[in-house]
Amino acid sequence: MKSIRNICFLIFGLILPNASFAQDSLDLGFETGAVGMTPQDWFVPTEGWAAELTDEKAVEGTRSVKLHMPGEAKASFGNIMRTLDAAPYRGRRIVLLAKMLVQGPGRGQMWLRVDRMNAELGAFDNMELRPLLAGDWKA
Q1: pTM above 0.90, yes or no
Q2: What is the pLDDT of residues 19-59, one digit of tens each?
């Protein structure tokens, strides 16, 4: 399998529109935790890929997370995930805000999926038609 060596740096936030920012926002950013470790409450499900907190290349604050393939990987893409309980957000419109920097060949895509109680897909967007390519930080 051809090795894709791209590195993505990410910063996340979840905002509930039409509400008080301080009360109804969830900071999914990476300002806490040990540099070099996977951020708390996040995981990398793709074998051969790694995600680690870094104090390099931060666009806001002092940290970001670096998603990379340190060696050969069986998966042609890597991702870092976090699962949230949807109960507090039911019936509300949410917005996922992120900034991403892609270095090297390849592309970066954010995705958000809502799973319903009956295992039906509630919503899904993976930026398939609007990927981010190598360059500067992009929102």
Answers
A1: no
A2: 444 456 677 878 888 999 999 889 998 888 899 999 888 88
**Structure token pair of residue 47:** 């074998």
Task: Compute the distance between CA of residue 103 and CA of residue 109 in angstroms, rounded to an integer.
Answer: 13
- What's the rounded Cα separation, in Å, for the pair 94 and 15? 6
Which value, in Å, is the radius of gyration of the alpha carbons in the chain?
16
In Å, the largest CA–CA distance within the chain is 48
Do 42 and 81 touch, CB atoms closer than 8 A? Answer: yes
**How far out from the chain centre does Cα 57 lie?**
16
Cα atoms in the 13 Å half-sphere on the side-chain side of 56: 9
| Cα–Cα distance, 45 to 48 (Å, whole number) | 9
φ/ψ bin of 89: left (φ > 0), alpha (ψ from -120 to 50), beta (otherwise): alpha
Is 24 in contact with 94 (CB distance < 8 Å)? Answer: no
Q: Which residues pair with 95 in a beta bridge?
A: 15
